[in-house]
Design a protein that fits this description.
single chain, 198 residues, alpha/beta, Purple Acid Phosphatase, chain A, domain 2, six-stranded mixed β-sheet, five-stranded mixed β-sheet, 13 strands, globular
Amino acid sequence: MKILISADIHGRKKAVDEIKIRVKKEKIDLVICAGDMSVFERDIELILEDLNSMGVPVLLIPGNHENIQKLFEISEKFENLIDIHEATYQVGDYVFVGFGNPGFALIDRDFEKFVAKLGNTLKGKKVILVTHGPPYNTKLDYLDGEHVGCTSIRKFIEQNDNIILAVSGHLHENFGVEDKIGKIKVINPGPYGKVIEI
C-alpha cells in the first residue's frame, strides 16, 4: 500500500495541488493529513473539498487550527474524507490510530484515556499512529534547544512494538524531519508530504 503523509498544509493551495499531482502520478492508495489543513479554519470547507477530489481515502485529524467538532461535521459531507480523531481506520492488517488537536501538551491525559480505551484491539495489527503533536525527545520535537513534544505519545509508542510508523506535524521548524523511537520510525512530513510504502 502506497501512502502519502502530510501535515500543516495551512491552506497552501500549492501544497494541495502538488499532493493531488503526486497521488495520481505515483498511484497513491491513501492520504493522511496530520492536522492544520487550514489557518484558523479560513476556507476549511474549500480545502477539504479539494482534498476530497483526489478520489482516494483521506484520513484527517484536527490540528490546533481546527475545531474538533467542525472538522468532523465538514468531513462527513465528503465521501473520501475520514476523520480519525480519537478513532481508528483499518485496511487489512493495518490500523491507523488518530489523535489530533492541540499539540502543545507535555502530558496529554485525553490521549492517554483514548489509547487506554483501545485495550487489546490493536493486538496482531500493524499500527500507524497519526497525531498532530510530536512525541517527546526526538528530532521532531526539538525546538530552541529543548524538547517540547508529548511524553504521553512517546510512552504509547514505546509500549507498543506493533507500531510501524508514527506521523506528526505541528512544529514547522521540523518539516521533513525523521527519527526513530527504538525501531519505530517517526516522521514530520511537512505540507508537501512524503510517500511511504507499507
